[in-house]
């Protein structure tokens, strides 16, 4: 078995048909790939659609479970998967024609650990919106050197994933942590602008979850998980690894600052974040935050005073603009 395509599915009746059709139109031999679908407690006609495809195609692996979330679904599918390579497909997304067959040829012929596909953003009525910026084509770098790309438009060699799973204590961004950990182990990573994964842009609750207390704790957990993995697998003298993990951890620090500290200038979370970063040795990343939000790396009082001043200036400017329109 060459390739396992993992699709977690929950109430996806509106999009699932197109998603699955795009998989089975990839010009792959039946014996070369499997589609592992985890039905995560769907209550619409998702189960019916999956069973209809299962009757038609013998290489669909279908498992039903109580609603548990995408992370648990993906982890279960990883356990079930038998392919030498693994990729993930969201149930509302789809591939361009022959993208996977060409991708599989690339990873095999170039002995790649990871291959990133180009991502096109598509509207709900399947109109093209934009493409994410390209990376250098055909350049093969180590995982620590290669730029990370958005999950899930990625082909992974199964041995590089090893025993890494999607963390369960992060409600927004477990895929980012999974991808970062796996890529850190990769020796040969590349990107293709010719092979397209179509990402359907539609309203969802992820942004709402990100601003909850559970979302905040998840971001804090992500920092700890990344730091622990770095210490377990890389020496302090490995400068590339230190820079790589700094960059990933900075993403989660930024989310905490912008979603949980800035909106209400909430000091307790500033203090908690500062304590974590000092304990883990990442306070130097506060300097990067301070480039955008001055005085963040100095003290909360100076940081908050500066932000309040900016808010006041913005309100005055808006008032002046209103008066000019009268």
UniProtKB/TrEMBL annotation:
Q: Source organism's superkingdom?
A: Bacteria
Transmembrane stretches, by residue range?
none
The Glycosyltransferase 2-like domain extends over 4-134
Q: Which residues form a coiled coil?
A: none
Q: What name does the UniProt record give this protein? A: Glycosyltransferase 2-like domain-containing protein
This chain's source organism reads Cloacibacterium rupense
